[in-house]
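Annotated sample (chain length 554).
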Amino acid sequence: MLAGETAVLQIFADLCALSRNRRGPEDETQQVDPAGEEARNPQEYLYAFLRSRDADAEGLPESFCDKLRRALGHYGVPDLDPSDGVSADTLHSALYRMFLAHRRATAHVPVVLALLEWRLSHPDSLPAEERTAYQRVLDRLVTATQLRHPVVGSLARRVRYTLFDAPLIADERAAGQDEVRAELDRLSDDPVERARQVDAIVSAGEPILGVFGAQHHAAMLEVMTRRYYRIRTLQDLQVTDRGGRPLLTAGYEHDGRALTVLATTVHTAPDAPAWGDPMTVQGDLRRLIAQLPEGSTVLLDLYIIAGEAPDADPERSSEKIRAMLGRLPDRLARVAVAVRRPHGDERSAWFTFTAGPDRRPVEDRTLRGLHPMVAERLGLWRLADFELTRLPSPIDVHLFRAVGRNVPADKRLIALSDVRELTVLRNGDDGKGRIRALPQLEQVLDSCLDAVRSARAASREDARLDWNRVLLYVWPVVDVPLEELDSVVRVLAPRSVGLGLEQVVVQFRHIGDGTAEPKEYLLRMSRPPARASPCRSPSRPRSRCASSTRTRRR
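Output written by the structure step:
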């Protein structure tokens, strides 16, 4: 069965490689030589060969002839130059059948999709000794189909990621979380050493909210606050004990306002300690806020330590939290609540509330699943001119339908996500060649594109939107030379075909020559071609994505 599955995928990939109707090299990282063999596309070369069946007379490049031999090999024809009448008839018959297969490729797509979907749902069924060969087939399938059959290319990438990349990334993530857990267990009493350890934990790329145990709650408040507020300069950060419950206080200035950050824990399990009871915590926080100077603005982060019983309904969780909060004090501008459950996921735990009529808490549903400062970092503030509606999406992706407040006809889909890790894979045995893959970035981008694709498939109106955007934020500092990013763009660009994307924006910090502090950059992948430009501060309103009635020329 596996041999038959692999053969079908290989045949489809080899035939699609001949039907590519776009000029340029098959490897998108290569530059095009207008006078070279990429001056025509494979489909043109195929039709030229069908006309005369003489590769030399048509001046066909050897790279295309190799593809043609590979495809004809599936029909029992080993070469392009028949030596006798019988082999000439065999070649003629094979070419005719191959031409028909090329014309009927759309009818073959459901079969290929069914095979890939089965493999995606049974990733553990692939024998270890066949993994290398199967991976090569998937790579060829992705390259051959990403333009002509993007649905097949997208699914093939998902299969490749699930079978080969995801286990490696999961192992790296688990190892990173184990390192964080070990660092927490050996936190030093020496202030200097402890500060170094906390800095290392804060900079970890993995999701770590679930790593903290009961003995780590004080450290959790410091680490998570510094992670979430990393785009602000926190001052006077300190953690104090409130009768057994840790309380973090810090401050920062933004847009001319002084803001106070409070963070603490709340326990809702049946065996919760008295000092962690919701009513006790609420009373303590109200007294603290009342003691602050007149005109103070408070941002509150609550970490709810929940019991074992899962609550799969976010609406029910939101209503419980709203009831627990009661009326919000006048100086409290916003409450962000994380529900921590055993084996939970920090990226699906957040609920954000602001004061509504009579100071009753009202949830900001556009922020469900992410901390407000994560939304700030991802650039959600740029969409202030749009009314946002949250759409279904993978857990790592935040997808919105944006409708212009001033121009209701301006509608688009916006996908945002974090790239928490960044591994650079290069060609060559020494790993110093051209960049061939950025697996974590590619997976996050694919997830965003899949979310946009699903939204367009679910709604005829959304399917017509063609000013869509993807916004990514890269956590690790990038040390790849900026000029090498052009090759990365050429690799990623074909994946966005047919999704009505205006641009993909990647925000990252670049270390340059290593002698100065990292500088913020925005990499815009768009038409006209992408460029990397210095990033303006997120506080500057002129960087917003403005609603517009412009029509893009295509």
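Annotation: Residues 150-185 form the longest helix (36 residues).
Annotation: Confidence is low (pLDDT under 50) at residues 24-39, 529-533, 535-542, 549-554.
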